[in-house]
Amino acid sequence: MNGPFATAFSLIASGDPALMLIIGLSLRVTLTAVLIACVVGLPLGAALALARFPGRGAVIVVFNALMGLPPVVAGLVVYLMLSRSGPLGSLALLFTPTAMIIAQTLLILPIVISLTRSVVEDLWAEYREQLRSLGASRLRAVPTLLWDGRVSLLTGVLAGFGRASAEVGAVLIVGGNIAGHTRTMTTAITLETNRGNLGLAVALGIILLTLTLTLNAAAWGAGQWARGRLG
Amino acid sequence: MTHARRYILFTASTLAIVAGLPATAQEFITVASTTSTENSGLFGHILPVFQAETGIEVRVVAQGTGQALETGRRGDADVVFVHARAQEEAFVADGYGVQRFDVMYNDFVIVGPGDDPAGLRGAADAAAAMAAIAGAGASFASRGDDSGTHVAEKTLWAAAGIEPAGAWYLSTGSGMGATLNTAAQVPAYALTDRGTWLSFQNRGPLEIVFEGDPVLFNPYGIILVNPERHPHVKAEQGQAFIDWIVSDAGQAAIASFTVGGEQLFFPSAE
Amino acid sequence: MRAERDLAPPPTTGILPLALEGAGYAVGGKALLSGITLRIEAGRRLIVMGANGAGKSLFLRLCHGLIDPTQGRRRWASGEARAEAQAMVFQRPVLLRRSVAANLDYPLALKGLSRAARREAVARTLDRFGLMPLAERPARLLSGGEQQRLALARAWAMRPQVLFLDEPSSALDPSATRIIEAMVEQFSEEGITIVMTTHNLGQARRLGQDLAFLHRGRLIEHRSAADFFAGPEAPEARAFLAGDLIW
């Protein structure tokens, strides 16, 4: 497969503006969605790990199941919400990057919540008595446990990032794949495939995978460094 | 400030910043059109001309015809630009659109494997060609998605008095490009608009095996979404786009669009 | 707004003596501790002994407040069932994934001390226990003995009136054990009440002033350690000291 690699390389080297725009948008949408999912999902997952209430088991099962929420379904739900004929139509968010961020956040959130709950639950079993002895309430223990489990939690965050950067169903429906405005790597690949430009589509795929690989390598390196520094 | 309150404040401001990410201050309209039109590259050619003249950015959401009309019905687009006459007229009749204008036409062609096992090349007309395919049980890739192309295909089968069914009839349920990819693989016959075909790269063994019958003409219509139905519709700018595309300038822009030296779309505005 | 506090002085009201009155703890209908009545006096070193499964660890947790009695009562001198100014050290040290200094800082931050006060307290603690060279080391990378030393130092920094220790040296080698025992003795000299479980008879003899002997969740003997080792009254206690297996 020499052609597509050469194409990918020359596209990057030439700094093709349309491509740069597409890459920029993909990163902006997915990274923002990951950020929001973490801000909301990390404490929620930790709280779920520590709390005891009737129906807790069902909540956990539901979030675990939602990790497999089909992106196109998530996209459809957000589309129906944001459509002018829908409840939130007056926000005029359909076919904008914001809508794409919302849809991807919905996809990433269950992953962050479920994996955080799992990590924090294990940590709590280990720390519970000592933390209580030191004077930490359950609520106060949440940030402590999150920080202590940060390396394991990073894996969950990366899984969320991977899921979002790879999906096309959600961003295609709510974004509309508008050239120069809501076109991401995955929707561009879909477009070029439909046009029969398979070589270009594969080249774009190579670029996308390289981006994801680089990000994961960086995260791994950071994790290793953190492990060495702080045990 | 307690940890929890500080955290909630941080979360809220993050969300506010993200949600408030600017819609560009520039004027724009949203046009719901079809994937075949987008795939041909027409919009990349004519829209910059319109924007240069009026300063209005046109954002095209390319979907199947059925989905594009639904987008218009929901008020998620300002203008609808598709090629399915009967459905377009119903759209206007039901009050979702203001008025339909002819814009251009291209034609459908039947493509198939170069060795033409069903012998279409000699067919007298489109109906005979379709009958030949069914008669020979030769593989046929259909879009199967209620798009304009699919509707046209169904009309042809009906004219030939045939209900297509069987292992040879592949209903892909996908866009024109994907259907052609399938046809190139099998290989199979397929009905496609000339525009998509001319810019399609992955032809494999496929060639045009039948063309020219007037029933294969594929007219495009443009409709402003009814502002009485959806008050937020950008009626003024939308109408400006329609006015431009049926004007001499717009029609000339359409006619000047070529792929590999061939003109894809033929202006037809009155 | 939290008031800025210096290194928190211990509450002016002592929380000891701690009184258990017919205290019991049952789980799923099964009584794991029952009918325990005793007073833990201030300034003493109480060793709690018993065979495996006698309920020593549960007893400690019951006194400390990690579990509440399902029967009977627990009362501190203030008359309440719960008290601050306590600390506990477990058999395996539970340290956070941060530096040694940060681990010492953590409970002080929980108490609401100002940053300056915490810095001073941490420095004083590091110095007191010879942990200065290890201050920025990741706590989890310390040896077992060093980690337990840190756990004890952390407990001391909290200025407890009573310190509970659950077999603090059973996972350590003899030299580390000696260090831990020395620390416990120092705490005791400072006036901190010690309640400690151990299955090491030598350790009990070395450190014990008072001794409580548990057997199957019941308090069998509670006397001065000297009297106990001179001649235990209960047959189970005698068997235990003789080295016979009893449950």
Task: Please describe what this structure looks like.
- The complex is a heterotrimer of chains A (231), B (270) and C (247).
- Chain A is an all-alpha fold and 231 residues long.
- Chain A has one domain (2-8, 32-224): Orthogonal Bundle (MetI-like fold), CATH 1.10.3720.
- Chain A contains 10 helices and no strands.
- The longest helix of chain A is centred in the middle third of the chain and has 38 residues, at 97-134.
- Chain B has helices spanning 3-19, 35-40, 42-54, 65-74, 85-93, 126-136, 148-159, 176-185, 194-199, 235-246, 248-255, and strands at 28-34, 57-63, 79-82, 97-113, 140-142, 169-171, 189-193, 206-210, 217-225, 258-259, 262-263, 266-267.
- In chain B, the strands form 2 sheets. In chain B, strands 1, 2, 3, 4, 5, 6, 7, 8, 9 and 12 form a 10-stranded mixed beta sheet that branches. A two-stranded antiparallel sheet of chain B has the order 10-11.
- In chain B, helix 7 links the parallel strand 5 and strand 6.
- The longest helix of chain B is centred in the first third of the chain and has 17 residues, at 3-19.
- Chain C contains 8 helices and 9 strands.
- Chain C has helices spanning 56-64, 100-111, 115-128, 144-157, 174-189, 201-207, 225-230, 235-242; strands spanning 18-27, 30-40, 45-50, 71-75, 86-89, 162-166, 193-197, 210-215, 218-224.
- Chain C has a 6-stranded mixed beta sheet with strand order 5-6-7-3-8-9, sandwiched between helices.
- In chain C, helix 3 (115-128) crosses helix 4 (144-157) and helix 4 (144-157) runs parallel beside helix 5 (174-189).
- The radius of gyration of chain C is 18 Å and the shape is globular.
- The model of chain C is unreliable at 1-9 (pLDDT under 50).
